[in-house]
Design brief:
The chain is of the alpha/beta class and 475 residues long. It folds into three domains: 7-69; 81-144; 151-243 and 323-475, Rossmann fold. It has helices at 7-32, 37-69, 81-99, 103-118, 126-144, 204-211, 234-237, 261-271, 280-290, 307-319, 337-354, 365-371, 389-394, 399-406, and strands at residues 153-168, 174-189, 193-197, 219-224, 227-228, 244-247, 325-329, 357-361, 374-379, 382-388, 456-460, 463-466. The strands form two sheets. The chain has an eight-stranded mixed β-sheet, sandwiched between helices. Strand 11 and strand 12 form a beta hairpin. The longest helix is centred in the first third of the chain and has 33 residues, at 37-69. The two termini are 46 Å apart. The chain binds iron/sulfur cluster. Iron/sulfur cluster binds at residues 398-399, 436, 438-439, 442, 444-446, 449, 454, 467-469.
């Protein structure tokens, strides 16, 4: 249980020392050229001292490299009882503050409950309801804070939020935020593929990037191998970078144009010390073969390849550090249909061979159906339906999922397409509609939908839906 070696700090100190000594040498050299004999001698001594100092750094550098090579795996030290008690107290305080309701607000809530019982939505106060819903969501997140991670899952996401501030007061208080991901929860077991579908702008990519900590999440917990990494600093995330990788959507802009394929694939292997330095080239060539790339591509540059080949390079780059979780962010949307099939098959074969876990983001439902074990449907930053592939495809419960799936073409000409066409555009995540976020486009929206947000509940084992069409109260 050793804390990770702080490479960044040591490297900064090392560089600062080298720069100071170099300056020392330069000043001394200037002194030597001065005509005053005393300064001349002083300069000579300084030059010798600077040179000796720089020379002494070389053994230190070797020592540094050895320490980095022998870097043990970072294991989270257990939280002490004292610290846990402090966290619990903090949680209790937040809870008490959230649960505090003023008599005026209680009166409004009672009025709302009465209006709801009478079906009188004219008298219903949406603002009060929205505040109540927000409070309940925060309380649920606080309740889950001390629930231990599900030991069977590789990735467990709880109440994940990613808000981007749009307007702030002078004091820094956020007054308007774009809610790109708003209270998303799911679990993913090792070796499985979770497909995330939804329209452009629904928060799929932001969610993937927040899980990887490329963005700092606004709230929620992200358990990876049982550790909550949501609050990890970049230096603490570094040992985990090898275990979590991403394949970007655009293979044209995600490769450095001035590096050869060999350089692109070797760099992460060297940086993370995946294999000894002498074996890097063989390792990269084996990896290229695994990803369907010829060995003579090693010296070529990205611009010499087609889109499909570039995506293979991107896949090889992400696999070069032996990850466990790969976030595939629309990896085939920029490719031709024939190439898409090759890449999907490659991803499936690699999954079987290496036991990888995928979070597969796409808006192409047929691709998601082909590759996924579980499916999550997102709308305007929230998960509206989640379940295994069979239940989602055979029994889509949410009207948005039904509309999405009705657009999938059926190759059988005898099957009548029952297409549900959604009207209007996806609303702005900076100003989402009150109540159910989908009510402005839902073909079966009811009065209640525009006032009260539905609860995200499990209606069948492992099948979660948020919709007023299904019983909302606990049985
Ligand atoms: S809650 Fe209402 S508006 Fe939302 S999806 Fe269900 S029926 Fe449609």
């Amino acid at each position: 249980m050793k804390k990770p070696f702080d490479y960044a700090l040591i490297r900064t100190l090392y560089t600062a020392a080298a720069v100071l000594l170099a300056l020392f040498c330069v000043v001394s050299a200037i002194c030597i050229f001065c005509l005053v004999p005393v300064i001349w001698w002083l300069g000579l001594i300084l030059l010798a001292a600077g040179g000796a100092g720089i020379g002494s750094l070389f053994p230190f550098r070797k020592y540094m490299q050895k320490r980095i090579d022998e870097q043990p795996e970072w294991i989270e030290p257990p939280v002490s009882e004292e610290e846990l008690e402090k966290l619990r107290k903090k949680n209790e305080q937040r809870r008490a503050k959230l649960a505090e309701i003023t008599p005026e607000e209680q009166a409004l809530l009672d009025k709302n409950a009465e209006a709801l019982a009478n079906g009188d939505f004219e008298a219903f106060d949406d603002e009060v309801e929205a505040r109540k819903e927000q409070r309940e969501r925060e309380l649920r997140a606080l309740d889950d804070e001390f629930v231990p991670a599900d030991g069977e899952s590789l990735l467990e996401v709880r109440h994940l939020k990613m808000y981007f501030p749009l307007k702030k007061t002078i004091g820094g208080k956020v007054t308007l935020a774009l809610r790109a991901v708003d209270d998303v929860s799911f679990t993913l077991k090792a070796g499985e593929t979770l497909g995330i579908v939804g329209e452009s702008g629904c928060g799929k990519t932001t969610m993937g990037r927040s899980i990887l900590k490329l963005y700092k999440p606004t709230g929620g917990q992200i358990f990876f191998e049982g550790r909550d990494i949501a609050g990890y600093k970049p230096s603490k995330m570094r040992p985990l970078r090898t275990k979590m990788q991403i394949i970007f959507q655009d293979p044209y802009s995600s490769l450095p144009p001035r590096s050869t394929v060999g350089g692109i694939l070797s760099e992460p292997v060297k940086v993370h010390h995946i294999v000894p330095a002498a074996e890097v080239k063989d390792y990269v060539l084996r990896l290229m073969e695994q990803c369907g790339l010829r060995d003579y591509y090693y010296e070529r540059y990205p611009h010499e390849f087609s889109g499909g080949q570039r995506q293979r390079i991107c896949i090889a780059r992400s696999l070069s550090v032996k990850p466990k979780l790969v976030i595939c962010d629309e990896p085939v949307s920029a490719l031709d249909v024939s190439i898409q099939a090759q890449i999907i098959n490659l991803l499936r074969n690699l999954q079987e061979e290496l036991g990888l876990t995928y979070l597969f983001i796409s808006h192409d439902l047929s691709v998601v159906k082909h590759i996924s074990d579980k499916i999550g449907v997102m709308y305007l930053g929230t998960m509206v339906e989640f379940g295994d592939k069979k239940s989602i495809f055979h029994n889509p419960m949410h009207p948005y999922t039904q509309a999405l799936f009705s657009a999938v073409p059926n190759p059988n000409p005898d099957v009548k397409m029952d297409r549900v066409v959604l009207k209007g555009d996806i609303p702005s995540p900076a100003d989402p509609p009150k109540g159910c976020k989908f009510h402005t486009r839902c073909p079966i929206a009811k009065e209640i939908c525009s006032h009260i947000a539905p609860v995200y509940k499990e209606y069948e084992p492992g099948h979660f839906v948020a919709c007023h069409c299904y019983p909302q109260e606990e049985e």
